[in-house]
Every structure is written in C-alpha cells, then in structure tokens.
Amino acid sequence: MRYKYCPVCANKLATRIPENEIIERQVCGKCGFVFYDNPKPACGVLVVDDNQKILLAKRKYPPAVGEWTLPAGFMEIGEGPDECAIRETFEETGLHIKLNGVFNAYKGGDDPRHAVVLIVYLAEVISGEIIPGDDVSEAGYFDINNIPVPIAFSSNEEAIAEYRARYL
Ligand SMILES: [Zn+2]
Predict the structure, then answer these.
(1) What total of structural domains would you count in the chain?
(2) Intervals of the chain under pLDDT 70
(3) Could you tell me if 97 and 28 lie in one domain?
(4) Where are the beta strands (DSSP E) in 72-115?
(5) Of 67, 79, 138, 157, which is the active-site residue?
(6) How close is the Cα of 110 to the center of ligand 1, in Å?
(7) How far, in Å, from the CA of 79 to the mean position of ligand 1?
(8) How far apart are CA 53 and CA 145, in angstroms?
(9) Strands 136-143 and 53-59
(10) Residue 22 sits in which domain range?
(11) Separation of 3 CA from ligand 1 center, angstroms?
C-alpha cells in the first residue's frame, strides 16, 4: 500500500531511506511523518471435527471471490487476537467456538490489500448452527483430505497443509 500525500499535513510524500534505517519508506519532508507499512494482523481458526472434517467459508467479496478460507479476518483496534478469532468465526459461520491454543502464525504476502500476518488457532464448536455471514456465500464442513478448491491465500493453504502433516 502507498500514500500519495502525507496523512498528517497533506504535503506530497517522497520515497527514501530514512536516517539510521535500511528500508526505503515514504516520508514527508515538511512535518517528518514516516509511513511504516507494517503487515496487518488477522486471526483465523482450524476447526476439525472427529470425522476429520474442516470448517471452511467461501468468500463473497474481493479479493479472492468464490475461493475458500478458514474462518478468519482482520483484528479491530482494541481487540485481542483471541477475541478476533472468535468474533470472525461467529460472523462468518454463525458458530460459537472455544479456542484450544495457537496453532501457528503465517506470513501473508498475496493479499492485494496489504501484507498480513495470519495467527491461526485450533478451535472447537461449542454451540450454534451454520449460517453463512454477510461476507461469505457458503460455509460448511469438508473432508480435510478432499477440500474444495481453490483455497484463498497462501497462508490458509500452509495452515491446512501443516495441520494434515501434524495430525493425519
Ligand atoms: Zn507531513
């Protein structure tokens, strides 16, 4: 992601390596603002039932429309990663879950909106029925050895592959 103008003072931004740094950044020559374009944290869940079926949601909006993902989404300001994972799962699938610890975290470099860090939890459903949320067209359980394609985002593919390698 890039800015054209300084979000603080509206001066045109330049691109250079700031003093004592090694990475090129967008900087404002007027007020000194430096744009640190860090990845955004997102949280998702691996819900796999006793029959080795995994909970997935189909994306309704860009990017990756019609592709399948773990229930997941971006953290809101003031929210913890665990709260984010629980909220996103409920919003996308209608299911209330309990988290069973962090599974792993992944670099997401193929989301066109911005760089992402995806924190993935192991989780289990405690109540609710599947009701696809506003931003998904479908949600359901699929045999983890025969998941629908395509899976959106390399981070999701990596998490599912790692789950298979560890537990199946
Ligand atoms: Zn400025």
Answers:
(1) 2
(2) none
(3) no
(4) 72-74, 96-108
(5) 138
(6) 30
(7) 29
(8) 8
(9) antiparallel
(10) 1-37
(11) 11
